[in-house]
Design brief:
four-stranded mixed sheet, 87 residues, Glutaredoxin, 4 helices, alpha+beta
Length: 87
């Protein structure tokens, strides 16, 4: 089974980031975490890539911008996340 390329921009003390990473960890998904704490240039790049969204987390699966924690959880509830992660 091939796993997708997952990237999450996060902050160390963000409860939504922790929740999103917990879900990915529970699914045994390897992901690349990019922390934005104290890095305005990294946050600016995230904001540009996320179409102006400044909140964390911002999550990508392959080249698809999922959005934040709420969107990730909605995909899980709808039964669509596993297909995205293995696609």
């Amino acid at each position: 089974m091939t796993m997708s390329d997952v990237t999450i921009y996060s902050s160390d003390f963000c409860p939504f980031c922790i929740r999103a990473k917990h879900l990915l960890d529970a699914k045994k998904v390897d992901y690349r975490e990019i922390r934005v704490d104290g890095k305005p240039d990294v946050r600016a790049e995230m904001t540009r890539l996320a179409g102006g969204r400044t909140s964390v987390p911002q999550i990508w699966i392959n080249d698809h911008h999922v959005g934040g924690c709420d969107q990730l959880m909605a995909l899980e509830r709808a039964g669509k996340l596993d297909a995205m992660l293995t696609g």
